[in-house]
Design brief:
The complex is a heterodimer. By secondary structure, chain A is α/β, with parallel strands linked by helices. Chain A has helices spanning about 15-25, 35-45, 65-75, 90-100, 115-125, 155-165, 170-190, 245-255, 270-280, 305-310; strands spanning about 5-10, 30-35, 50-55, 80-85, 105, 145-150, 220-225, 230-235, 280-290, 290-300, 315-320. Chain B has four helices and nine strands; from the N terminus they run βββαβαβββαββα. Classes of the chains: A alpha/beta, B alpha/beta.
Chain lengths: ~325, ~160
């Protein structure tokens, strides 16, 4: 974005070349840090709207760097931070839980960083324009839209997306992933998202067997689309009640296999988000607090199931605050 | 006739056969009424399980009466995932056979083949598979370690 300053760091020259082209093409003023020393010096100078930093070892293993980024987050609150990592999900999610200013992680796998991912992430933040499944798909793809109204209709919502995935030629396991995502996001839209006038959860305490019909003002929207590379499912609710703490807290708890994984309280099992997370390649949550939440799940159709499971997952939480992301 | 997603349990060929989706509408209370000494439970027909279904399953699998040994057979990949992700998913049961997903890199064919746990345990590996369509050797389309972990986890129960 014109006039915005972006600092990019990665020790891999190939990644740096991709980032330089991609970010400069957006009109941003891009500075490249080529060493840990220059990265630290540049951050100290301040003045950046966005830091995009590779956080793999050795950087990630150094406690001093974690502390430095923590302090930078406090000293320069208007500077946004995006990390790109190759570490496993189990390793980076605790990082998100400890650092609230950290909301965006781009997963690197055995391919270089995608220019599209860098541009999309940086521009969403710099333009404060965060919503839309379309941003994650090729131009020209128009998502299908379904209104989420009644819990008894959930099988029909799932079936519609499942049929779509089958028409795309997805194999049975990919279809199962898609069905899992739709099942969980629709359940979330009906039972967890709605708030009463005091901002308290309205239906979260209910047994999920109880039928719930959402009022017109409570209804969510389910969107789904595919651009050949990714199949995307999004759910938009008109409440904006989801928070980073909730998301990261649930995911972290579920990652540890043990008796605390599944909640035994009345209502949901507390593993819906985790099941969505396990079923996707990229997880994007856009929040306009008290107004709107959009949960986007993208499955990379180019991967075998083996690679799908082995590769780390990109994770983004974008929060629109006072017109800024 | 139930649709493909409706959870059903039926007794056939001396097996308790489950099918459909395990979700908030699946009645799993039969688990607490099983009578033994051994029950063979066939999971081939389970299409998927949602978050509420996971909790309901865990609640009920803990209620299987003492003295009843469940032998799970024809466990599909989506349930292998659950066994690997969720603590205590099969209770004290053991797995006798499971499906392994294979894909052919040459012609992109996909199929799931039934594998006997004892056979894998002897070989300490998953069996090789040949593509029925083009004859090429197929790849296991999953993290093999997940399947081998089942062998280790259930070794003591065998």
């Amino acid at each position: 974005m014109n006039g915005r300053r972006v600092l990019f760091y990665d020790p891999d020259p190939r990644v740096v070349r991709i980032a330089e082209r991609a970010l400069t093409a957006t009109g941003s003023d891009v500075t490249l840090a080529t060493s840990e020393q220059s990265l630290r010096a540049q951050i100290e100078q301040n003045g950046y709207d966005l830091l995009m930093v590779n956080f793999d070892p050795p950087l990630a293993d150094k406690l001093e760097w974690r502390e430095f980024l923590d302090k930078a987050g406090e000293r320069f609150p208007k500077t946004k931070l995006v990390l790109h990592v190759t570490s496993r999900t189990e390793d980076y999610l605790p990082l998100l839980a400890e650092r609230r200013f950290l909301r965006n992680l781009i997963a690197k796998n055995d391919a270089p960083l995608e220019a599209e991912e860098l541009i999309r992430t940086s521009e969403k933040i710099l333009r404060s324009d965060i919503f839309g499944l379309e941003k994650y798909l090729l131009w020209g793809v128009e998502p299908y839209r379904v209104h989420v109204v009644d819990s008894r209709e959930k099988p029909r919502y799932v079936q519609q997306v499942s049929d779509y995935a089958a028409r795309l030629g997805c194999n049975p396991r990919t279809i199962e992933l898609v069905e899992t995502i739709v099942d969980e996001v629709v359940t979330n839209a009906i039972f967890n998202a709605p708030r009463d006038p005091d901002g308290k959860p309205k239906y979260a305490h209910l047994n999920r067997r109880e039928p719930v019909t959402l009022a017109t003002t409570e209804q969510a929207e389910l969107l789904f689309a595919c651009d050949g590379g990714y199949i995307g499912v999004a759910q938009v609710d008109p409440f904006g009640a989801l928070t980073q703490d909730t998301v990261v807290g649930y995911l972290n708890r579920c990652l540890v296999k043990g008796p605390r994984q599944v909640e035994e309280k009345l209502g949901g099992a507390g593993i819906g988000l985790f099941r969505v997370f396990q079923s996707l390649s990229k997880f994007v949550i856009n929040i306009e607090p008290n107004h709107r939440t959009e949960v986007i799940a993208l499955i990379d159709l180019r991967l075998t199931m083996k690679k799908f499971k082995q590769f780390p997952k990109s994770f983004h939480i974008f929060v629109q605050e006072d017109g800024r992301a | 006739m139930p649709d493909r997603d409706t959870f059903t349990m039926e007794q056939r060929d001396r097996q308790t056969r489950l099918s459909g989706v395990i979700d908030e509408h699946a009645d799993l209370t039969f688990l607490g009424r099983l009578s033994g000494p051994q029950v063979t439970m066939n999971l081939r027909g389970i299409r998927r399980i949602n978050s509420y279904g996971v909790r309901a399953w865990l609640e009920q699998i803990r209620k299987v009466p003492a003295g009843v040994a469940i032998e799970f057979v024809e466990v599909p990949p989506q349930i292998v995932d659950q066994i690997n992700m969720v603590h205590g998913f099969i209770g004290g049961g053991r797995i006798s056979s499971f499906y392994v997903p294979y894909t052919c890199e040459k012609c992109e064919a996909y199929e799931e083949r039934l594998v006997q746990t004892d056979q894998c345990r002897k070989q300490e590996d998953l069996p090789k598979a040949q593509c029925a369509a083009c004859g090429a050797i197929m790849e296991v389309d999953d993290v093999e370690e997940q399947y081998l972990q089942i062998l280790r986890d259930t070794e003591g129960n065998a």
